[in-house]
Amino acid sequence: MVVFSEDHKAETCRRGRIEVICGSMFSGKTEELIRRLKRATFAKQQVEIFKPTVDTRYSEEEVVSHDNNSIPSTPVATSQEILQLITEIDVVGIDEAQFFDEGLIQVCNKLANNGIRVIIAGLDMDFKGLPFGPMPALCAIADEVTKVHAVCVKCGDLAYISHRTVPGEKQVLLGEKQEYEPLCRCCYQKALKDEKK
Ligand SMILES: [Zn+2]
């Protein structure tokens, strides 16, 4: 079970920091990102979300809320663009960070060193269980890492991976969320064995 602390210090203290929210698909990463960003807006902080352009067809949830406190979301092609686009921002959210280039690590450090709170959400592993893109390095440089979990569709335990239910070698299948299922480690091993039969 994940218990979220009421870390109000991070919301009011204007010191730069890096927070990473990682986990499998269906684990609620984006919801947690939005929850933190919304609290920051209530604290009168300027907030903006960046997401990779590749994400336009592959979005777990829209990074926009449907009330008056909607958070502006800007698609960018490279991590460097984030530095070029930010102006008077207190908190930067980055969604689907696994699709960004490795330059994102340096970009996040630069932002945090300049007093910006950076909150990153992304898949920790690809469907093969391998660390995904810049996520492992982002976890390493983060001040705080939160791992969120989906629920295994086979046994109800905490899921560990997004298992792809259709064959294919490509790391990213765009817009095909229905072809993944969250599984725990045990059920994932069973599924792999069954596929080899
Ligand atoms: Zn299971």
Characterise the protein shown here.
This protein has a single domain, classed as Rossmann fold (3-Layer(aba) Sandwich). Helices cover 28% and strands 21% of the residues. The protein is built from six helices and eight strands. A six-stranded parallel β-sheet has the order 3-2-4-5-1-6, sandwiched between helices. The longest helix is centred in the N-terminal third of the chain and has 14 residues. About 6% of the residues have low confidence. Zinc ion binds next to helix 6. The site of zinc ion has 8 residues, from helix 6.
Which helices and strands occur, and which strands form pairs?
Blueprint: H1 8-12, E1 17-23, H2 29-42, E2 47-52, E3 73-76, H3 80-85, E4 91-94, H4 103-113, E5 117-123, H5 135-141, E6 144-148, E7 161-164, E8 180-183, H6 185-196
Parallel strand pairs: 1-5, 1-6, 2-3, 2-4, 4-5
Antiparallel strand pairs: 7-8
Bound molecules: zinc ion (ZN).
Zinc ion is lined by residues 152, 154-155, 157, 183-184, 186-187.
Determine the strand fraction and express it as a percent band. Answer: 15-25%
- CATH-level-2 architecture: 3-Layer(aba) Sandwich
Strand order of the largest sheet: 3-2-4-5-1-6
- Helix content bin: 25-40%
Q: Which ligands accompany this protein?
A: zinc ion
Question: Summarize this, please?
Answer:
With 197 residues, the protein is α/β, with parallel strands linked by helices. 28% of the residues lie in helices and 21% in strands. The chain is elongated and about 55 Å long.
Descriptive terms for the model:
197 residues; alpha/beta; Rossmann fold; six-stranded parallel beta sheet; two-stranded antiparallel sheet; 8 strands; binds zinc ion; ATP binding; transferase; DNA synthesis; zinc
